[in-house]
Amino acid sequence: MPNELTTPLLDQIVSPADLRRFKESELRQIADELRADLIDAVSKTGGHLGAGLGVVELTVALHYVFNTPDDRLIWDVGHQAYPHKILTGRREKMRTVRQEGGLSGFAKRTESEYDPFGAGHSSTSISAGLGMAVARDLSGGTNNVVAVIGDGAMSAGMAYEAMNNAGALDARLIVILNDNDMSIAPPTGAMSAYLARLVSGKTYRTLRNRAKSLSQHLPDFMREGARKTEEYTRGFFTGGTLFEELGFYYVGPIDGHDLDHLLPVLKNVRDAQTGPILVHVVTRKGKGYGPAEDSDDKYHGVSKFDVITGAQAKAKANAPSYTSVFAETLIQEAQEDDKIVAVNAAMPDGTGLDKFGAVFPARTFDVGIAEQHAVTFCAGLASEGYKPFAAIYSTFLQRAYDQIVHDVAIQKLPVRFAIDRAGYVGADGPTHAGAFDTGFLCPLPGLVVMAAADEAELRHMVRTAALYDDGPISFRYPRGNGTGVDMPERGEALAIGKGRIVKEGTKVAILSFGSRLADSVAAAEELDTFGLSTTVADARFAKPLDADLIARLARDHEVLILVEEGASGGFATQVLQHMAVRGLLDHGLKIRPLVMPDRFVDHAAPEAMVKTAALDRKGIVDAVFRALGTEAERVLKA
Hints:
With 638 residues, the chain is of the alpha/beta class. It contains 27 helices and 17 strands.
């Protein structure tokens, strides 16, 4: 941490242009102050801390060497972008990060000109950077394009697709591989730093290019031999043969916390008017903050915490989380069925499968950031008689849609999709909201689509999925804690395509799909006080629909409200089409679908997002009165 007696240099930096006025000898102090400021800010708000701590020096070096924002700097995922935000004019707003009306927790184009590409999902930076580099060349530009990608994101196939394309195009693009966990690098130190500086320098590259020119006059077999000799000799000392095969000029590994190593290498690659270059930087997640360095996840995502002790604020103890209910129920089912296996895509903790893995390590598979592979991998397991549960966040399942269609649904393979984080997720905002899964799964023939209204229903749906072998089946559930309902000891298999009546009434009917059931019941109780006797039903299934239940609600009530925490095109659309085909809309029924608004809702507390979308108790009550045209009467009674 910076000495308290030194003059704060960070206070003098409003933009990277200010940073570039300092001497290189002053950058160490700036990095120390930046790290301290980051820790203080995130302690007040919570958020992604460990990744940002690991790239403090790298961030300072990149903005010092490159002429941002003219030079494009793209942060993959965005978890590591907090130091970048502080240096690019957003320091004063950092205490609002992930708060309603505040800064996004990710890079966001509308937030700053220094964020040339939005992030949230992983492994997109190289593709986006290549697009920017090609656009620059088509326009006759000369600026640099730099993509910073972590080792975890580099596990995704999309990153290699982009690198293969960049190599084929010989595009002038710089990729920084931030390696903080893969251990793919040999120990860094003076020798590796020297070699990195040597091979990135102009002299070596000039000699290498001259050698290439001379080799063109050699016979084919000698030319290829010379190329491989140079490549593998350099690879022996520096590594990176894989990246060279993809067409990238590899530099590294170098210590990502040593500015004396970083700066000359970055200057060299900046000035290299050549094709794609990959700089391999080794960093330590959580660097510079003891509690983060010592934790298992290096403080990847934290709640508010005490800076001195590192102790994080604990959520109030009440109902169990949906994720834990899923994990515990799956363990319970797997204890009686050895065909059950569990698959996740680099989210064992987030999906609860770390708990499953502790009990059944041989039946648990983390495939890395590779949702497409995860789904087809599950299809292969299912084809051999196993019962795979693919536990994937709703927002990430989007990345594997073709595999769901082609490899699972068409072949009618019984893959079980456990869709976590369905609906609004709060501070992570629109990039992580689970809005579209019901809409994109319902059109697929033979796929059963469920949603849990509470944690007890989730337990029933896990068991239902475990016993269902007639094809693919999915169940969605929200982030956070359950509603506190009484939990059954064991889940019960649900009748496929059958909902349930929760409350009986006569005038208004509310048909809820998923997490809005508690608000639907609360709305019904309020409507009862106005003399509007209200039925509440839990659909449970969006496909197949409960035709008898829908017909009863339509026939016996004046108003029917359809409620779901999902985008248009989902459950309500299924119901409306069903009713239209069967003539259930022809008798004066007042029907109103309540879904997410047709826009991406910015980050806020989940309950605030639900309120904004008018999917809470008040929104449901208001919809009923608008349908009845008795808004004025309600105001008089109130």
